[in-house]
Amino acid sequence: MLTIVMTGATGFIGRHLVSHFLEAGEAIRILTRSPGKAQKLFGSSVSVYPWDAVHSGDWEAALIDADVVIHLAGASIARYWTAGYREQIRQSRVQSTSLLVDAMTRRVTGPLVFCQMSATGIYGNRGDEVITEQTAPGKGFLAEVVREWEAAGECPPDRSIRRVVLRSGVVLGRDGGFLPRMEWPMRLFLGGYPGSGKQWFSWIHVDEIYRILQFFIRQPDASGVYNLVAPEPLPLREFCQTLGTILKRPCWMPIPATPLKLLLREMAEEMIFTSQRVLPQRLIQQGYTFQFPTLLDALKDLYSRQ
Asked: I need a surface site. Which of 72, 108, 176, 303 has the fewest CB within 10 A?
């Protein structure tokens, strides 16, 4: 049985991971700002440690004898970016990661796997360029934040901490994230894609993340940066059309770019109209086999569930 410490456990991805790890018989310790919410979600099956992501404290005891730390915490980027919220996006990632690494450095004595969530946002807008882990960082607010975020997770080389950085694409699930926002207008026959729809869309099934984490935990030579995406990215227009096929609804309404850019400004440029054709090159090289390699595979699975 593994002892796994997790931040961000009450969020969309975290809820799925906790459920899977508990089913596998692992011991879960949750660091959270919302201990009441965590207890309500998971009950007595997990150990909950109050954590403000800013200060050292009693929560550090959760790290003692831990085998794995999975760091997911960070403010949502799917909100309007005021100047204040931009800083919250940055600090919730950089500060919490620095705090966690400092605590691990002081508290961890045995071998530990540190799985740090990151994002493909580090690559910026790359058009049709094929992106691998060797691709240089791009430009823009999100690229800048992710660079700082990853730098904050650097662990001292003299510690027995094996760090894996997961640059995640858009995570697909029925109960959170991007997919429900696309689904409801399509069910009302208002499905469409923003702009030309030619921007590349890199994605991953939420349950694939669990399988990949299990792969990393048990692969002693896995370390460094990995693109957490399915091997078949596709243009956003094709995503919309595939979703329409699953829902038996048309995807016929292009959404003009200009109003979105005027309304959302930088957020529109970086989240809606950015094109990222990202491949999981290192995952494939290390022998990982995807359960959901194509979008059709992923959507069929998600929409086959009650």
From this structure: 303
Q: What is the pLDDT of residues 256-299, one digit of tens each?
A: 666 555 555 555 566 677 899 999 999 999 999 999 999 999 99
Residue 160, domain extent: 3-172+204-229+277-291
User: Chain centroid to CA 219: how far?
Assistant: 20
Is residue 89 situated within a structural domain? Answer: yes
Asked if residue 186 belongs to a domain, the reply is no
| CB of 117 closer than 8 Å to CB of 74 | yes
Counted domains in the chain: 1
Q: Rounded distance, CA 98 to CA 93, Å?
A: 9
pTM confidence score: 0.92
Residue 174 has phi, psi (to 5 degrees) of -80, -20
Parallel/antiparallel/unpaired status of strands 234-235 and 200-201: antiparallel
Domain assignment of residue 168, yes or no: yes
Tell whether 39 is covered by a domain: yes
| CA geometry: angle 45, 298, 13, nearest 5 deg | 35
Query: Per the structure block, which two tokens stand in for 21?
Result: 């790890």
Alpha-carbon gap, residue 276 to 281, rounded angstroms? 14
Q: Amino acid identity of 220? A: P
Q: The CATH number of the domain where 32 resides is what? A: 3.40.50.720
